[in-house]
Design brief:
256 residues; alpha/beta; seven-stranded mixed beta sheet; 10 helices
Amino acid sequence: MPNFTYPKSSRYTDLDLIYEQCSGPGGLKLAEFMAHKMGLYPGAKLLDVGCNRGWQTCFLAKEFGVNAVGIDPWPDRVSKEPMIEHLRRNAEVWGVESSVLALELGVPESKLASQSFDFVYSTTALEMLRIINGEDGYLECLREILRVLRPGGVLGLGEPMHLEVALPPDLEPYVSQAEYPWKECFRSLSQTRAALEEAGLVVDDARYAPDAEVWWREYAEHDPFCKQKPGEDPKAIEVDGGRWLSFGCLIAHKPA
């Protein structure tokens, strides 16, 4: 979207804090961009799938007035406690504890009731499941999202993706990390769109984020794990130079 100025997230300027609390590139700017495209409105019921520490969940509850449920089955990489404990505390920090619920659940077996949510939001989460459960497992997650959405409900999916080009040979060693290698996790925008459609969703908008390169540079500079290991993700971003790496945003709805 041209000339998107992030009027809400631009008020939050501590990028070290934001990237400490958010997973992957984009931070609160990504959340605002997605919320704008999804059409969030006050009082809507939103499910955040793979909420991580819940900083984006809390931002959406505070700035867009949604009632949010954040789910994440994984432990935190630093504290080793459940991610949802961070979400619970962060909801208090943001002053949205009455409109945010944290549950230690995941997809594709969320055990949530069908047709429960107006919106589902998921960023920098599902792509990693391709390593664990393969492409079929990824599709199962999308079908679970379809199940919990009400008819006409909207999914906003934001994921690290690659451009519609072959992986440059000189970049290949840098995206072949032993744990969750990017070359195995990431897909192109067209491939991801096809997966959503195969799962039964109707895609309304699919694009590479206009600020994807900026978000990746911010991630390399401010993410705490990038600071600890500059020869890993930051080096991959440097070597790539915008040739292959990007970030995709898709908006889709459940047929009525």
